[in-house]
Amino acid sequence: MNPQDSFRIVVLGGGESGVGAALLAQAKGFDVFLSDKGSLTEEYRGILAANNIPFEEGKHTETIILSAKEVIKSPGIPDKVLLIKKLYEQGTPVISEIEFASRYTKAKKIAITGSNGKTTTTLLIYHLLKSAGINVGLAGNIGESFAKQVIDDTFDWFVLELSSFQLDNMYEFKADVAVLLNITPDHLDRYEYTFQKYVDSKFRLLQNLEASDDFIYFIDNEPIALELGKKSFNVNHLPISFLKKEKNGGFFQEGILHLTRNTRTFDINANELPIKGPHNAINAMAATLASMAVGLTDEQIKNGLLTFQNAAHRLEPVAEINGISFVNDSKATNVDSVFYALNSFDTPIIWIAGGLDKGNDYTQIEPLVRQKVKALICLGKDNSKLLSFFASIVPVVIETQDVKEAVQYALSFGQPNDVALLSPACASFDLFNNYEDRGEQFKATVRSFIS
């Protein structure tokens, strides 16, 4: 790689991670070029121009890209793209922004992945550390680019949310604390519809861990347990379970979170936590163990847990109207997330679901729906799959393509103590810009009914 100034780096993708990577590459003396097949936002175009970083948009000029010594690829670009295949075939290293930035930071790293719950857990760990006075940064699949923050490298710790797409192009990256929450079928189109390839991607999180590093994981998740049965990892294992108490790790029993890391223990009642439901007990146990690894005191951990506010669109309370609690869980774009959501309530549920189906198999939530859902409001352009599956299971099933009408139905079907839950199980792009847009429209509509 030396001399650095003769080493040409090409960044593919001009979003937050790509522009951050280009800025870091320039700061480290590399000759860097950014290419985006789409169009850049005005903000990113301005940043690149102000820093005299050459870029192109609306195309990928192959002669420039294929001449690179190393390529930093946006996680949104799949490996099956012809240009990426050509880079691999000629032996050009293709890495992620996270991999690149990790070369230049002195900070210790807590890395979190999982099919569901990773944003909540990442934000909770970040809140715990920050509220305890730790000099900590937040990056990865959330917030400001990791690479951009590494330019000044002022933090002692980073909390990184990592998707499987980011992990795919990470090779030398090493976490000090690794958190694996769960693995359920998702994004299989990127993995040739082979679940094992998706599992392998998630387990890349462990690839460089050392014996002194902590590995926190939910052992009750079958794919994680099966994979750990095949391979051994020489790390400090901290399994989390609802079923079995281990010497080290987390155990949830009779409403109490029991945490043990080496010789230290910490307990807290789940009822005290601002985030509810069994899935959030897992998230809270993972975050607590990570905080214990950093060295937070019991008082600091408890204070952080009790003062946490979750991100929007994740089982977010919206309002209570006529005794009906409206909850926005628009981020629930797969069946597994809906399972966790339905499990979080003990009162009758009016379930608002629908959108672009991702190959959903609803059989895993059928028992919960039978037990808990009194009405299903299908909110989507094509509700045929939801309608056909649940018509004989839920007492009332109705469809609409209008958020206001969905809320009106919920008010007409609901009674005091019921929950009206938007937890779609589907992508949002049929009627909305994204899941945030869907959630914001839902919240605004619900609040418009408050007299």
UniProtKB/TrEMBL annotation:
- State the Gene Ontology BP annotations: cell division; cell wall organization; peptidoglycan biosynthetic process; regulation of cell shape
User: Which Pfam families does the entry mention?
Assistant: Mur_ligase_C, Mur_ligase_M, MurD_N
GO CC terms of this entry: cytoplasm
| GO molecular function term, any single one | UDP-N-acetylmuramoylalanine-D-glutamate ligase activity
- Please give the start and end residues of each transmembrane region: none
- Ranges for the Mur ligase central domain? 112-290
EC numbers on record: 6.3.2.9
Which pathway or pathways does this protein act in?
A: Cell wall biogenesis; peptidoglycan biosynthesis
Q: What is the name of the protein in this document?
A: UDP-N-acetylmuramoylalanine--D-glutamate ligase
Organism annotation:
Runella defluvii
Query: From which lineage does this chain's organism come?
Result: Bacteria, Pseudomonadati, Bacteroidota, Cytophagia, Cytophagales
Quote the gene name from the UniProt entry. Answer: murD
